[in-house]
Amino acid sequence: MYPQEPARGPDGLSGGAGEGPVQDQTSLTLVVDLDGTLLRSDMLYESFWTAFGRDWTVALTAMRGLVQGRAALKAALAETARLEPATLPYDKEVLDYVRAWRANGGRTALVTASNQALADPIAAHLDLFDEVHGSDDSRNLKGQAKAAFLAERFGQGRFVYMGDSPADLPVWSLAAKAVTVNASARLRAEAESVAHDVEHLTTVPNSVRPYLKALRPHQWLKNILVFLPMLAGHQIDARTVVLAVAAFVAYSLVASSVYVVNDMTDLNADRAHPRKKRRPFASGAVPLSHGMLMAPLLFLAGAGISLAVGPAFLAVVCGYFVLTTAYSLNLKRRMVIDICTLAGLYSMRIVAGAVATGIPLSVWLLAFAIFFFLALAAVKRQAELVDSAKRGTLRARGRGYNVGDLPIITMIAIAAGYVSVLVLVLYVDSPDVSTLYKEPSMLWGIGGVLLFWLTRTVMIAHRGHMHDDPLVYAARDRVSQICMILCLGFAVAGAL
To answer: Which of 11, 19, 89, 83 is nearest to 46 (CA)?
Structure first.
């Protein structure tokens, strides 16, 4: 859709309403809003989360700024934010609209309620605007304040305004033409009631898919570990199964709340990554304001189910939430601490399953899990470093490693994996195993399969083919699926 085209009906991407065509655009200035219009995000939330991801004390700074007013809050966050204009999620169709306007001889202006310190580098990067105006520490350029500013700056009826919010209605009432971007049906109707001429742009389809993707349901596969104590202890009855399923659901909801927070704090790192840049928050498919509602609601839902399972299980889930939040905000950038934390988070799922079902946790199972998951955590970092090396970067973005650490990380993955298999075979020769298995010798087969699978997994990561969490990768990989079936087969054969 270009500015010189006539408005189309409701069956197209745009529609018109008003008294007639707008004036010749060479005599008008196209004024473009930033948040939600030019950008599929909001700079207030962007500046908060990019700063919060580096230093959680920014939340205190934000609270102090908010006491002084919204303009002061934006100014305070603008000082701490480290935004990267080149990777921000711009709306391509809006950019094309602005380019077409300039190509036809029209002037353009970026006028935003975001702080001037944030608007300037964005405008400089795009090089599409003749002038840029934003809020300062005392004036919030929004709603009536923006309408008055534009009328004074350009003259009433001497500008076209592109916006997306109900706060833009006062501006549209003074504009020669209103251009709405991804507005709701109600906002479109309101814009048509106040503006002389209206054009509607729909650049993003309404869909729940980005919201579901933000929950990372594929990562819920890791929460299957809560069933392990029940299976390893051979206690498969109706009550135990119900408790384990409830624990799985609760853990998944709480984990998703943390994934939402993690993605909001990792915006810059994700946008610099060839695959992660398509994540819902990094791409702008889901507004950050929605994420700030999703995270607490998911946690409360998971906590409610956890409390129904039992207070002890709720305590474990809260411990998981605290540790994984600390990991997202800080620990993931700490060398070695990060992989130890990841191994602990994996193992906590097994502990949670034992607490939820009331099954005593085997020391053998816990020892195996710690080393096995340390290996998988190291493989995860190994894959990230290999990816960084292929892209020609020296460091894994947002991590405490550089490409030169790759041999050591690979060694940790192999060593920890082999130690986990050693724990397994020692368990096979222990007195404990005879109470659960009629043919303990069959479990040696599991050790052999795991040796193969761990070695192959490290090789796959080394070759740059590991693009996800190792457990999630294993769930999709055909060879890994066969290995899993073989392990189950050996376990069943040993028990019968």
So the answer is: 83
